[in-house]
Specification:
Layout lengths: L15 E8 L6 E7 L4 E8 L5 E9 L6 E6 L5 E6 L3 E7 L24 E8 L4
Antiparallel strand pairs: 1-2, 2-3, 3-4, 5-6, 6-7, 7-8
Length: about 130
């Protein structure tokens, strides 16, 4: 068995706390959601090339949390994405297929500024108790 260990520096080189895959219905690609210390949820498209290796492309940056994001999960239907963080908030996100993605670059601090290719909106916010 051959194993390849991935090194991920996608969240400003901060720890990634959670990830989840959403499989496309036709099996062509997989959407990957990642979350971590940098307070953002990032979405990626993961394709498998003819050589069997994975290729990862940035899709979108979801920035509503004010503290570290501990968990991201797609709903069983794949229609919604939930993110929960240290700010005692859970956001339910939905892809806006009719809305154009924002054209302002994300990752301003990083060398490679990227544009969002998808537009996601919060459809529900759940706030918890802060002790």
């Amino acid at each position: 068995m051959k194993v390849v260990t991935c090194e991920i520096a996608w969240h400003n080189k901060e720890p990634v706390y959670s990830l989840d895959f959403q499989h496309s219905s036709d099996g062509r690609f997989h959407r990957l959601a990642t979350a971590g210390v940098d307070t953002t949820v990032r979405l990626w498209q993961v394709d498998t090339g003819a050589d069997g290796k994975a290729a990862v492309d940035f899709l979108s940056n979801l920035a509503r949390h004010t503290k570290a994001v501990n968990v991201v999960r797609f709903s069983p239907s794949g229609e919604l994405l939930a993110s929960g963080g240290d700010d005692a908030a859970i956001f339910l996100w939905k892809l806006n297929e009719s809305k154009e993605p924002e054209q302002a670059p994300v990752f301003q601090e990083e060398e490679d500024a990227q544009l969002n290719k998808e537009s996601w909106s919060v459809v529900k916010t759940l706030r918890g108790h802060i002790e």
